[in-house]
Specification:
The chain is an alpha+beta fold and 561 residues long. The chain contains 17 helices and 15 strands. It folds into 3 domains: 175 residues, Formiminotransferase, N-terminal subdomain (Formiminotransferase-cyclodeaminase, Chain B, domain 1), CATH 3.30.990.10; 165 residues, Alpha-Beta Plaits (2-Layer Sandwich); 205 residues, Up-down Bundle (Four Helix Bundle (Hemerythrin (Met), subunit A)), CATH 1.20.120.680. It is globular and about 80 Å long.
């Protein structure tokens, strides 16, 4: 899937209470081949459901059209009410480029969808963000101003003729906004108040456009204007952030509701901290927060590392633990259980099951001991190397938290992060080695009847064999590089754990020797003499290097025991 162009679609439907309607809309998406429905996030108070799905562009466009069509059939906007601003049954439908596709191409797909919705469903459509056809329609809030209730008159204005579809009010479905944008994070921060006015005061402090300046009283004073008559504003704390305050009856509290429109400019934890600082200054307290829809994994990793740094704790811990720190620090589990497996895009897109590294220790041992030839020595070598990196990383984390060594926590944190890198890369090689073996078997099974089939089989077998040599050779390289952080750990790490460094180094040496044996056996009988010669020469050098590193580091270990 990663080699194909992938876009994300995040339609917002004006129904968050009737699960029969929500399910019917989502079923339209599920029926389209090539689309993965990742998340359905209904909100009772907002009476709004945010749906997230991804896939190849043409499939995503078809799924979006069918969902918009079904929403138009089932949702009657004349009967709708909810806390969130809205103007249509499908209120907004953004497309987001994920991989293998440019924003320009995504804009073209957005226009294809909008044209079809306007013409086939008779729903007025406005284009926004990167797909906007007019500068004053780039901002969603500008298009949605007046909401559904004001749209019957708004659509009559010359400046508000739709980009697609009829220029008449669709009483049942309202209007839809379709566009293309960068990844947006919808994020709400919880306050210990029920006051919308006070929540808005925090929102105005935080959001990019800030608040209007007034003379004297900041609430009732005369608005200050520039020479053009425009209201003068005090900029907010966070760029690329839109925010309002509202009260959520379902939760019994007020929130700052934010859209982080560019997380490379203002990320999640920065917006959270800005809300917390503003709330504290106003006698309020942030109690937690809420993610609406999905989030890229890096957002939570960055947040977790931010809070670990505040605590002067090592950042070189497992990805899962960093994310757990982020969840607890941001209070993402205050209002409901927060499951990263259901909220992180990368986790949802991962193929579940079938991987060796997803097995528990007993399952992995039993699979290795079975009559199947894979996993074999190459996978085990990679796993032993990962264990060596993990064990040495443990010593660095213990050293980072050693009483009296507080001034050295950053040094050991960086070493532990190195260790985590080596561990993660070597773990990936466990399944990669087995996959390399399976590719050889697949090539062997290819038909070899006519000359074309024989040539195709030969080419596939050669490519698979090269890969089967490259994988254990890469295990040797990575494990050999890991000696660097292991030696530093032996020299300056917690002496009480020096034996663990020794075991870790022995594991790295075993990984390198085991991978060396796999390089040799996979090179045997391979006819590409130049490739074999080059690979074996590198393997011999790495093996010699490993023996030298092992001896040097174990000498340090022995001296400290």
């Amino acid at each position: 899937m990663s080699n194909l162009p992938i876009i994300e679609c995040v339609p917002n439907f004006s129904e968050g209470r009737d699960m029969n309607i929500i399910d019917a809309i989502c079923n339209e998406i599920k029926q389209i081949d090539g689309v993965s429905l990742l998340d359905v996030d209904p909100g009772k108070a907002t009476n709004r459901t945010v749906v997230t799905f991804v896939g190849e562009p043409s499939a995503v466009i078809e799924a979006a059209f069918q969902a918009i069509k079904k929403a138009g059939e089932l949702i009657d906007m004349s009967q709708h009410s909810g806390e969130h601003p809205r103007m249509g049954a499908t209120d907004v439908c953004p497309l987001v480029p994920i991989s293998g596709i440019s924003m320009e191409e995504t804009v073209k797909w957005a226009n294809k969808l909008a044209k079809r919705v306007g013409e086939d469903l008779a729903i007025p459509v406005y284009m926004y963000e990167e797909a906007a056809k007019k500068a004053d329609r780039k901002n969603l809030a500008t298009i949605r101003a007046g909401e559904y209730e004001g749209f019957a008159e708004k659509i009559k204005e010359d400046n508000w003729k739709p980009d697609y579809g009829p220029s008449t009010f669709n009483e049942k479905s309202g209007a839809t906004v379709i566009g293309a944008r960068d990844f947006l994070v919808a994020y709400n921060v919880n306050l210990n108040t029920t006051s919308v006015r006070r929540a808005n005061s925090v929102a105005f402090d935080v959001r990019e456009k800030g608040r209007i300046k007034r003379e004297g009283n900041p609430v009732t004073g005369t608005i200050l204007r520039d020479e053009n008559g425009e209201a003068i504003r005090t900029e907010g704390m966070c760029k690329s952030v839109k925010a309002i305050g509202w009260f959520i009856e379902e939760y019994g509290l007020a929130q700052i509701s934010m859209n982080l429109t560019n997380i490379s400019i203002t990320n999640l934890h920065e917006a959270f901290e800005a809300c917390r600082n503003s709330a504290n200054n106003r006698g309020l307290r942030v109690t937690g927060s809420e993610l609406v829809g999905l989030v890229p994994k890096q957002v939570l990793l960055d947040a977790g590392k931010h809070f670990l740094t505040q605590q002067e704790r090592s950042l070189g811990i497992a990805e899962e633990e960093i994310i757990r720190i982020a969840i607890k620090s941001l209070g993402l589990d205050e209002l409901a259980q927060f499951d990263p497996q259901k909220k992180v895009i990368e986790y949802l897109m991962e193929e579940k099951g079938g991987r060796l590294i997803d097995m528990n220790l007993t399952e992995f041992a039993n699979e290795t001991a079975s009559e199947s030839p894979a996993p074999g020595g190459g996978s085990i070598a990679a796993y032993v190397g990962a264990l060596g990196a993990s064990l040495t990383c443990m010593v660095d984390n213990l050293s980072a938290h050693k009483r009296g060594w507080d001034d050295q926590w950053e040094t050991f944190s960086k070493l532990a992060e190195e260790g985590q890198y080596f561990k993660d890369v070597l773990l990936a090689k466990v399944d990669e080695d087995t996959a390399a073996f399976n590719k050889i078997m697949d090539a062997i099974r290819m038909p070899k009847g006519n000359d074309a089939e024989k040539l195709a089989r030969k080419d596939a077998l050669n490519a698979a064999t090269r890969n089967a040599i490259d994988v254990p050779l890469s295990v040797m390289r990575i494990s050999n590089d890991a000696y660097g952080f292991a030696k530093t750990t032996a020299e300056i790490g917690n002496p009480a754990s020096i034996s663990d460094v020794g075991v870790g180094v022995a594991c790295l040496d075993t990984a390198i020797y085991g991978a060396y044996l796999n390089v040799r056996i996979n090179c045997s009988d391979f006819k590409d003499e130049a490739f074999v010669k080059k690979s074996l020469e590198e393997a011999e050098k790495l093996l010699a290097s490993s023996k030298q590193h092992r001896a040097e580091i174990l000498a340090i270990v022995e001296a400290k025991l």
